[in-house]
Amino acid sequence: MQTYTDFDLCYKALCSRDSRFDGRFFAAVTTTGIYCRPICPAPTPYAKHVRFFTCAAAAEAAGFRACRRCHPEASPGSPEWNMRADLVARALRLIADGVVDTEGVSGLAQRLAVSERHLHRELMAEVGVGPLALARTRRAQTARLLIDQTNLSLTTIAFTAGFASIRQFNETMQTAFGCAPSAFRRSARPEKGGEGKLTLRLQYRPPFEAGTLLSYLGQRAVNGVEEVKDGCYRRTVILPASQGVIELEPMKKANAVQLRLQLTNLNDLSMLVQRCRQLFDLDMVPEMISNILAKDSLLTILVAQKPGLRIPGALDGFELAVRAILGQQISVAGARTLAGRLVAGLGVPLEQPQSSLTHFFPSAQVIANADLQGYGLTNSRITALKALASAVAAGDLVLDRSADYEVTKEQLLKLPGIGPWTVAYIVMRVMGDPDAFPVTDLALRRALEHLGVNMSVRDLEAYAEAWRPWRAYATHYLWANLAASPARNKAGSQVNAVSDEKVLSGLLQ
């Protein structure tokens, strides 16, 4: 629906400026013609003058323009669409990636294997506007973000945001914000990134457990491709039209993560911003998850100790899937070593290495055609990597958040050497399924044993029903508790997974 039906709940959140609802709905005021975030500092309007919308595009389609005080374009994304894997949710994620700008509505519909008419009908029913309106709002929001936070020229911003012409840019910004783009540029902004880096701030809903997230990524950082140092995550990236280096650093006081980036061109900026949000799980609602998980006696203390725990996503789905296969049957440190060898032997070197960042991760096409002997890989692991790379290179397997969960699971399970644990891990991190549950995971079993619980796979599956739809978050709480335990194995000895079949048979004994 284009408007929220629970008016009383939304109005209470608006009156209290409740940050938990930021990005989950927008409040439009009929007397001013403006729509705002729930946290807007402006005086609260009378209820009779307020309408609530689930997305900014629906508010704009109803004739409202964005508030200049609370900046709706900077709000976190709605968690509802990240929880879902249906047609509408997948379409919204693709639109956020800029697919309509590059491939049009026909390309969007083709990716989703539906007709344009059916896609338009489904989006209208769910969010109140069609794909073109959603794409137009996304472009305007991206442009406003760049105007506010960078020194890029307005012309560069227009085309970076996905506009086809300066005229279209000016008209859209006038409609969305009630003024020309130049009106936002009253004074030059000081450079903050340095070294030619573009700097943006990505908002999130507090609390945010940054330490655990960075520790998880740091323990698994692949030499040459990524590093975690001094509270900052850095890595190389390859996108459809560009490549470069990014840095993500949490800013607690600002409820934001600072993104510093250097790309060969900015055509992929919108996609990169979405991928970075997914990598740090910035659109989740901590209280929504803790309300469910804290009811469990096993998790109550863990949730209280680490409020706002995030699930690390993936900037590149193929890369994460490769690393999941490499992580079977060996330790975290062992998997890093194997991945580092592949990067050193098959990755493309940076023209100008930056500290420890020296290579881009090899593509699916490269791995599919490469001789993988000599990297310390078993024959079964080579077979699995080749099959995965060939499927991705041929376009038969899509590993990103636009894909259908169930279809992708079935496709992965058909590949040699890939079992339930690997599939659950990939779906959890690549596709963002909040309910993905690697029930056969050995570290998960050890985490439960550390809490004095010993369960079979069947018993654990039954027990974890109470964690739905947040079983992936429950898993990360248990993993984090095990990693922080003084009695756990020494660094680098924790096992990612014994093979799916071996763990399953061992746990069922």
UniProtKB/TrEMBL annotation:
Reactions catalysed = Hydrolysis of alkylated DNA, releasing 3-methyladenine, 3-methylguanine, 7-methylguanine and 7-methyladenine
GO CC terms of this entry: cytoplasm; protein-DNA complex
Record-linked CDD domains: ENDO3c (cd00056)
Q: Enzyme class, one word? A: hydrolase
The EC number(s) given in the record are: 3.2.2.21
Cofactor(s) the record lists: Zn(2+)
One GO MF annotation is: alkylated DNA binding
Superkingdom classification of source: Bacteria
* Chain ranges of the HTH araC/xylS-type domain: 89-187
> Keywords on this record?
Activator, DNA damage, DNA repair, Methyltransferase, Transcription, Transcription regulation, Transferase
Task: Kindly give the PROSITE patterns that the UniProt entry links to this protein.
Answer: HTH_ARAC_FAMILY_2
Gene3D superfamilies found in the cross-reference section: DNA Methylphosphotriester Repair Domain, DNA-3-methyladenine glycosylase AlkA, N-terminal domain, Helix-hairpin-Helix base-excision DNA repair enzymes (C-terminal), Homeodomain-like, Hypothetical protein, domain 2
Q: What are the GO BP annotations of this UniProt entry? A: base-excision repair, AP site formation; DNA alkylation repair; methylation
Q: Which PANTHER family match?
A: DNA-3-METHYLADENINE GLYCOSYLASE, DNA-3-METHYLADENINE GLYCOSYLASE 2
- State the protein's name: DNA-3-methyladenine glycosylase II
What is the source species? Answer: Ktedonosporobacter rubrisoli
